[in-house]
Amino acid sequence: MQSLTGTAGNDLFIAGITGGGAGGPTLTAGDMINGAGGTDTITLYGAANAAAFATANVTNVEVVKAQVQAAGATALNVLIACVFT
To answer: Is 53 left (phi over 0), alpha (psi -120 to 50) or beta?
Structure first.
């Protein structure tokens, strides 16, 4: 399990595939990513990272990008919550 926290600026988090495409995902269930300030982006590569996105704890990340090439369908579940104070 990983815990990553961004800065006050614009941060980029990349969930790639280990081993140059033949390995497993780098985003797993229970990973925590907090973008903090700025306009933050997470980029998901591969079906396994897209699937793990639903079980990871990702907060304060404003942009989600995904590049998935897989046989069959991969669901990408994104909950968008807006809080106005």
So the answer is: alpha
Tell me, what amino acid is at 36? A
Question: What's the rounded Cα separation, in Å, for the pair 9 and 69?
Answer: 31
Half-sphere CA count of 41, side-chain side, radius 13 A? 7
Considering only CA atoms, which of 48, 78, 61 is closest in space to residue 12? 61
User: What integer is the mean pLDDT of 39-49?
Assistant: 88
pTM equals: 0.78
Over residues 60-70, mean pLDDT: 83
Cβ–Cβ under 8 Å, residues 79 and 58: no
- Here the tokens at position 63 are 């942009």
